[in-house]
Amino acid sequence: MAKQKLKDLNQEHIITWMDKLPDDEKNKLANQVLNLNIKQVVDLYNNLNKTFEIGNKKIEKISAIDIEKLSKEDFEKYKNTGIDVIKNNQYAVITMAGGQGTRLGHNGPKGTFMVHLNSGDKYLFQIIVEALQKANNKYSVTIPWYIMTSEENNDQTQAFLEEHNYFGYPKDSVKLFKQGKVPLISNKGKLLIGSNKLIKEASDGNGSIYASLKNDGILDEMKAKNIKWVFVGGVDNILLRIVDPLLLGVTISQNNQIASKSVKKANPKERAGVFCKIDGMPGIIEYSELPEEMAEERDEHGDLVYGDVNILSHLFSFDALEKLSNVKLPYHIAEKVSDYLDEDGNLVKPIEKNVYKFESFIFDAFSNYNEMSILRVQRSEEFAPIKNKEGVDSPETAVNLYNNAKSL
Prior knowledge:
The chain has a domain at 72-259 and 308-404: Spore Coat Polysaccharide Biosynthesis Protein SpsA, Chain A. It is 31% helix and 22% strand. It has 14 helices and 20 strands. The strands form six sheets. An eight-stranded mixed beta sheet has the order 2-20-12-15-11-3-6-7, sandwiched between helices. Strands 1-13-14 form a three-stranded antiparallel beta sheet, with no helix packed on it. A three-stranded antiparallel beta sheet has the order 9-19-16, covered by helices on one side. β4 (114-117) and β5 form a beta hairpin. α1 crosses α3. It is globular and about 70 Å long. The termini are far apart. The model has no long low-confidence stretch (mean pLDDT 93).
């Protein structure tokens, strides 16, 4: 059956490889072929020009609440609404930590990267735990913490957290789950064999979080715990406010199911995705897709019309996560360099990009709702990402922001 599946999808070179393997490895590869959705990847390759694009879609401004312009009365009202949810043990946090620290020159999961702060040397995971512990003490609760890893870093992440005793966080309140994978496909439309003698796969983007929550039983666990609201954020923003009753209160008061925080775009040319409405529905448009005249457009107050930058700080009702776990998201294309084994078992290390990787993004799901809440916060207080080894969004810039933040 596996060989027939490969023949039907014009992947006979995998059969040639399979026939050379000893029985145990042959069976392992055959089982993988049967379990993989190879047709999906081949179809994506055959329709490269038809994957998600802005194209002629209608782009419009989306409304946001600016934290700096909130009245004291509204601020307190929203905050108290959110506090009630947290105090009633109806709040959970998810950290997306599937990436490696390669761009930082770090050998290991990104969450195991250490930064040198005025308050001492701390790992990224440690900073998150301290924020959780602070909220637990403040609201007399223990917030469930879920960590989305990837196939490549799950075991390392688990071992690291155990080695450090979860930085004092209750172990039974921490659970790891893996994001999804899809096979890579060469620029000639062929599947690749990796060094493990199996078809090479890669993580399929943070948009797989919804299905992964369902497939790994996390949604069932949340339901059993009566979780009503879930915060989702990345591991590499050391100023990320993961427990914010204000965001909760705004979202609940606006009767929305999803919400995000934004920061004001630094300038029209900042390389960042911004919130907008796409064909009337909430979404994010990448800087490379936003026409220059729209990027430069300003409102009556002199602010950029498309000036709310996505900082990967999202809030979902449990009902929204449950709904979105059954939604198929569009894929975006990324060209990558990937080594592979040739038909003689030799490792080939290409210099130029040779494969297509297909990814879905968490914000692709926003369009399933007519409205979402957006809370614009201060960049200096809530956005200190660590992406690059040097320069913009590096450990140096992030640490400077962290050490100078007033909210800590």
